User: Which sequence fits this backbone?
């Protein structure tokens, strides 16, 4: 049984919530899975390393998360940059 999230789940998520990598870039095993970011897993980690994307937090040895508020701020910043508003 597969549970799908409503299309506006990201808007309803509080800024303090944690997001896993699968929620950001989708699940590589399921190409139809929802994704927030328009790039791959490798690009996500390249951007993190270059400090162009918010740094994740480690909750355990195999659990890496990003704060929803940080991701939301990143998405707003790239939206402004692509529209030529940011300096």
Assistant:
């Amino acid at each position: 049984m597969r549970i799908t999230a409503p299309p506006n789940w990201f808007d309803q998520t509080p800024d303090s919530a944690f997001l896993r990598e699968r929620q950001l870039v989708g699940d590589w095993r399921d190409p139809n899975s929802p994704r927030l970011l328009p790039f791959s897993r490798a690009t996500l980690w390249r951007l993190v390393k270059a400090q162009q994307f918010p740094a994740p937090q480690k909750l355990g040895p195999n659990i890496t998360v990003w704060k929803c508020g940080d991701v939301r701020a990143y998405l707003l910043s790239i939206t402004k940059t692509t529209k030529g508003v940011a300096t």
Summary: The first helix runs from residue 9 to 12. The chain has one domain: 16-82. The helical segments are 9-12, 21-25, 41-49, 68-82. The chain has a mean pLDDT of 86.
